[in-house]
Amino acid sequence: MSRRHQIFQAARILSHRLGQAEVAHAFHGGFLATLLGVPRDTEELFCIVDRGFLSIRDALNEVENFTTVSSTWSNRMFATYAEPIPPVEIEIVQAGEGGPRQLNQTTIQILDDVPFLSPTEFLRAKIRAWAISAQAEDATDIAYVLARYWSVIDINRIPDDMERFVQTYPQSAPSWQALQARYE
Question: Is residue 70 located within the same domain as residue 143?
Fold first, then answer.
């Protein structure tokens, strides 16, 4: 089984359990970018949830091969799926902190029965991450999603840091200008 398949399987199992517990959730991170077509390997996977961590821990309490650990220094939880070697780690964050405040049909897309952020919300989250850390991987994801999905992105949800991104990566200017032209 490929590593990509193992990571997706971990997301599918976590999504199934959260769905059973009626916890709204969506995945994002570099792994979503690879599902959308970015040609790179990454294991970066976040799960945004609309409930407290206790309900997440309860939802995963009796799931074989899943463990959870809460960070003592930040508002984060980590879920580890230990069946594959090496294990798959998924960082769990509260809605509004690592993505949209509300998870609904306008902020998520379903890929093979698993909820992921929509292109707009993914771009928004990646721009915010890039504005803080300026990592090349985030820039690659942003440039790809902007170039491929500019026609479905809601410009009203994109932070002002996008202008700085386009100045830093001028190859993204044509896609950004095309997106802006849709709203003129």
Answer: no
- Distance, CA of 26 to CA of 32 (rounded, Å): 11
How many structural domains is the chain composed of? 2
Amino acid, res. 181:
A
Cut 0.85: pTM above it: yes
Beta-carbon contacts of 125 under 8 Å, excluding residues fewer than 6 positions away, are: 28, 98, 99, 117
User: What's 29's DSSP letter?
Assistant: S
Same domain membership, residue 106 and residue 17 = yes
Q: Is 52 left (phi over 0), alpha (psi -120 to 50) or beta?
A: beta
Residue ranges making up the domain that contains 98: 1-117
Predicted confidence (pLDDT) per residue in 125-153, tens digit: 999 999 999 999 999 999 999 999 999 99
Work out the percent of the chain whose per-residue pLDDT is above 90.
Answer: 68
Beta-carbon contacts of residue 26 (< 8 Å; ≥ 6 apart): 47, 48, 99, 103, 107, 108, 115, 116, 117, 121
134: left (phi over 0), alpha (psi -120 to 50) or beta: left
pLDDT of residue 41: 86
Contacts with 179 (C-beta within 8 Å, 6 or more apart), sequence order: 146, 150, 151, 153, 155
